[in-house]
Amino acid sequence: MNSRAILSPVPDPDFERLIERARQLIESTSSPSTRKAYASDFRDFGEWCGAHGFVALPATEQTVALYCAHLSLHLRFATDSPPPQRDFALP
To answer: What pTM was computed for the model?
Structure first.
C-alpha cells in the first residue's frame, strides 16, 4: 500500500518577527501609491473572477490569461485620457 505523509509547517518561534520583516520588505520596495494601485487591481481581478465563477487565489494560468484578454478588450492604455469604467461582463 502506497501512502503519503501530509506535512505541515513546523511552527517557528520567530514567526511574528518573520511576518513583520516581510511587511517591511514589501513596504520598502514600493511606494504607497503603488501598493494602493495593486490592491485596487487585485480587487478588480477578484470581482471579475467572482462574476464569472473563477477562483482568484490560487489563480490558474487560464484564469489569468482570460482576465488579460478581458482587459485588452475593455481598457484603454492612453495616459492622456481618463480611465474607463471597468465592465466585468464578458462580451
So the answer is: 0.59
